Fold each of these.
Amino acid sequence: MRRKARPGWLALAAAVVFAAPAEAQQQQPWNNTVLVGAAGVMYGASANLPGRGMTMVHFMPTFLASFGPDLLFEGELHFTPGADGVETEVEYAQIDYQRFDHLQLVAGQFLLPFGVFGERLHMGWIDKMPDLPLLYADEAVAEDELMSLPSDLGVMARYARSLTPTTDLNMSLYATQGPHMDTPPAPGEPADVSFGNTFADQNSNKLLGARVGVVVAPKIEVYGSGFLSTYDAASTLHYNAANLAAIWRPLGTQVLGEWTNVWQQFAVGARTSTLKRSGYFVQAARRFGNFEPVVRWEQLGEGQAAGTVFRDALHRVGLGLDYWVTASMPIKAAYEWVSGGDDQFIVQWVFGF
Amino acid sequence: MRTFLMIFALAALTIAAPRHAVAQTPDPMLVAKGAQIYGNQCMRCHNLRSPSEFNDIDWRTIMAQMRARANLTREQTNAVLAFVQATNAPPATAAAVGAAVHAQAAAAEAASGKRALSATQVRQLRAYLTRLTIAPRR
């Protein structure tokens, strides 16, 4: 009686097992975390500063966490050491749902799509000047600030579509908690109003905003944006704003400009009055090898209501020179002539990672 | 018979031995489109950073954020991602992609008599192919 060839069959069985096709492509994990952001040190010299100069450091990490192909969490923090400790701000912390080809849904605290500078160009390694434009500077720079970088808690829908191979259309619609009063104002005067860094909704009213943009890459892009809101607990005082922004790139030069107008209602006895104020900046920059001279012309207009000036005008001209050590590491130096005599010289070294 | 089966099994094992993972060759025209968008769209905000700064997995996460910031469509985002990942691919794969783009463009041009790639696309491709030879790989 012949024995069966068991070792051969076992070998054949093993061959069948091992003949299962190998992975044609190594699977890349869809859950991933990346740390990017910027850090920098800045020295400013001005006759009005204690000791005629001050040094500041910034650390701005951005956490990106992707969960599958359609879900992204992104959050940016600002750490600024100061005399009273480390000042911490949440610039944004949001979840982006990107399941659709042309539509994204966002929830959380996000930089409002108002203008373009705040949302896209404020990072230290991207902004070509060492400091923010007056339109978005806080009260440490412009005592009568127009509007700090608007970041608020809410939901947003973003739509983008290519109209032609070189022309894109984008739209954003959002609803957020809205701005709040920093401190109650003196009777008959408008309050200082600001955004963000509070999770307490001031009132039942929501800020509603939108932005529409047309991009003819890379030459020109134009945006119109605005929002409507109330800022008092009774939802009776309106705070509305409109913005026009454009970026133009003629002959290798980048020209960036924004204009903002704000209407703020405030109580005068039993009546209300409306503070109207506008501001703008125009910035031009051009690369020459690793060097990039920059000029910024900007103005905050007077804030007037019924012929009374409540906010002083401010005018500033900055002349800067950037040296790009790498594509994301500039050394920036700028001298700024400021109306009222608060001229200043700033040097900043930023590392984008 | 036993000897035959043993030889057969050994041959089967050899043929079926696990292969090294082969990177999927990206669509050449998607890479070319990604190079164009990389040059035109990304520079709207910032200097163009080298694709070799991040690995392929991190680029996927970063491009998700860039889609939001730059208001890109999914198609545009995928094209840029294909470009940066192809640039980070092993040199042989990246060179093959570049050659395929040129070949397809030349064939289209010969068939239609019209220039298949714009001057911008040619410039981006040239920069892309140059980066293949001089940029370090992760």
Amino acid sequence: MRHRRVGFIVLAVTIVRRKGPLGFIRRPPFSDHRETSGRENCIDPPVARDEFPVIPFYVDPYAAAGMIARGTDPIAQELSEAGAAYMTVRLNHQEVPQPMLARSASERVSRGREGRDAEFAAVALPLLPSIARVAAALTRDAADADDLVQDTFLQAYRNWHAFTIGTDCRRWLITICRNEFFRRRHRERRVTAVDDADLELLGAARAHIEARNAGAEEMFARLDLGPAIARAIADLDPVFRSVVVLSDIEGFGYDEIAAALVIPVGTVRSRLYRGRRKLQTALLSYAIDAGLRTPAPEPARRPKE
Amino acid sequence: MSSRDNCETIASQLWPYLDGILPDSEKDRVVSHLEECLTCASHLDFASSFLDAVHKASFPEAEFETIRARVMRALNEEGFAAQT
């Protein structure tokens, strides 16, 4: 009996030392997978819950890294579309649009709830379609995406004081959305094909050759592919969809996508190129079904002798 | 390097070129090849029209009305009271 008790205590101490006091609970369900299968075969490297670097959304990671939006600032466009007054201020040698809603943090506070709500309505709410697209790209089904959008805006509203006017609100919201997504995501073991950007690089030329052979080279000029593209993007596997949406619709750079999805830049590249190829294939089928096929030119006949 | 090899190299750089991530030296090489090679230039045109089409793809505003209403309800419960 005494031996049994000692044995139990030794076992318990060993577990606690190896895994911490909540060893059984904290252990991610896929930890074995990580040890037994090669990382190169796993498109979404499993990461234990505790290892997720949740970016505090009161720090704009992009602004912090000096990655101020290139070219025209989308916030200016969003503000003017929302009918909000804004002025442009110089910040870090760049013209940055600044809503004329509150000039300083103290003014924002003194304006109270009404001012805050007006600011939120003018700056954050017009970005809903953009966040809805990002949420749809991250999640697997529409209900999850809607939950994610709602939680993102609730979090943003509750923490609106932490948003710095003049910085990129869309990126701030996307950071919140991403953090929320990782918080609620059930991590699944997802093993698919090898990520290899080099294999996909020729896709740009191959798709063109395929389209030309099918007589559909002019598909982008001759067809309104808008609805077909929206459908084809919705049909993409979420792994590819998230990267394609962030890059080709929302206009993020490779580094920014890697930071948002917590994947290496090489993985961003391979998923992006592969996602684009899948889209092109889907669009080509659509174009052919839509009857866009110019008859192949008759081969030149040799005059009969 | 044969011209065929060169075309393959250039074709493999079309996405990075269009995404603006090629270093200057490689970018110059792609540009000078594209000026001479009609085939590669046509690949580039096709890829570029594809990206334009995706970027402009219309996502009907109506799609967002349901979720917008839902978010507004949740925000109102939270005390949000601005006119939108």
